[in-house]
Amino acid sequence: MPITNHDNTSLLTAFVDRLHKRYASDLDSVIHFSLPFSRSQQATLAVLSNSVPDLLPPYIDAGSDLLNKTDVVCLRSNELFQLGLPGPDLAMVTAPYWIRSTGKVLWGRDVRHEIPCDHSHTRLLACQLDQMQSSRHRIISFLLKNAHLKLQAYLARQRLILMVNALLERGIWQVYPVTIQRRFIETFPDVELQSNISEFNSLWTQMREAGPDRQKTLAYRAAWLFEVFLRLLWKHAR
Amino acid sequence: MITHSDYTNEVKFFLEDISELGDDVCSVILYGSLVKETIRPGLSDLLDAVVVVEPGLLTNETSYYRAIDLMIKICSRLSRTGAPFHPFHYFANDPNGWSAVALYVPAWTSDRYSRIVAGTDVRPLLRTSDSELQYMRGWYFATSRWFRRRALFLNAVLDRQEGLREVIPALQEFTRNHPQFACFACNRSVDRAEALAEIAALFPGFDIDSLQRLSETAEQSPTDIDTQAAQRLLEQALQLNESLYKSVASWVGQNIKC
Q1: Domain span including residue B22
Q2: Are A137 and B135 inside 8 Å of each other by CB?
Q3: ipTM of this model?
Q4: Structural domains in chain B (count)
Q5: CB-CB neighbors (< 8 A) of B76 in chain A
Q6: Which of A76, A81, A134 lies nearest to residue B258, judging by beta carbons?
Q7: Could you tell me if B242 lies within 8 Å of chain A, comparing CB atoms?
């Protein structure tokens, strides 16, 4: 998968130049990498020396043109550990692996192997399930507002987060938005999970074409399928 | 005009409504400003509650829809009061207890910050999968990044009404959540009410007074502030976010094996 296009290359070069001008020897490294689940599907990591007092200027240096085309993450050298932490950020949870495999050093040191890349002892899925259970009251907020399509989109994203974490817990990180469901089903060959995913997918089309009453019924069904999905996944959590 | 008694009355109405679920309700836990006695009428959330139900209610499709319908009915009434509110949390009490993200454990297990208003006391059965708070640490750093991005974006669109209207909610989210998340990142599982004091103790050099003042401003300001005020507040929040982030990152780097 290509990680840059020609437009980005010139924007990235200008960004690196501005960073170098501002920070000189305090600019430790700049790495550009694929990040399939982020909005722009790519990201740029700028690493500064530990003595830099403020991390805001690089985001200003990036400018809105670049920020619209790539996620920018700026850290000090001694803060790289945070990229290896679990969390609710769908895109970033697999970032260490993508940095290692697709990262292209645009400036300075190659810090890719300083980023922790081991989730073998982390209860990724169980923590995400706790988080989903603690926030499922949001489903009621959507239903209260009759925001049925928004609910469907919200649930789809929650399911994606769970799948990414469930796969990562099994050591599988190289998945893309278009391949994740297939990979998930291959990895968790559970008939109930499969039929749950398949029915949820079919609700997308049905909901878009339905009138208000039917849409409400389908939204309830989507919420129910999510509840079942959570329960089925607990069986696979550490 | 919303008064203090509206808050206590809502609890009574809520308990009446939720009793429609009968024996499926194991426990109703109240938390938040009503328990802490810090209600600010019209500003505080109307009902901070957790309903813990029998597992069967969420494993049977018909029962699930009945529960959802009831929750919507309750929330619909709450929304008509005009006070801020969020739907109550709900959990199934499985044979092994019930499980939530670590953030809620201090409030939902403490007599100081929560109380049982119906059913049995299931608070001792609450557990979290994030026993080492790794997920909470990741959450704090993600939240800090998200706020930085959001504040910089808002700063760039202050010439639009919709941009201006987003500033106060963004600041409220920042001042309400970040201090508590920062505490969790540093292995301090505290209720939101204790977060500022904990931050002051952890990081004596951090400008806690400014954060406190920003919090008061964010809670008391109308959402339609002028551009200059919005810009000033955003800049202040960005600096506080950076300063808190730097302290937390340094603390975690030195004290936790990530």
Answers
A1: 4-127
A2: no
A3: 0.94
A4: 2
A5: 144
A6: A81
A7: yes
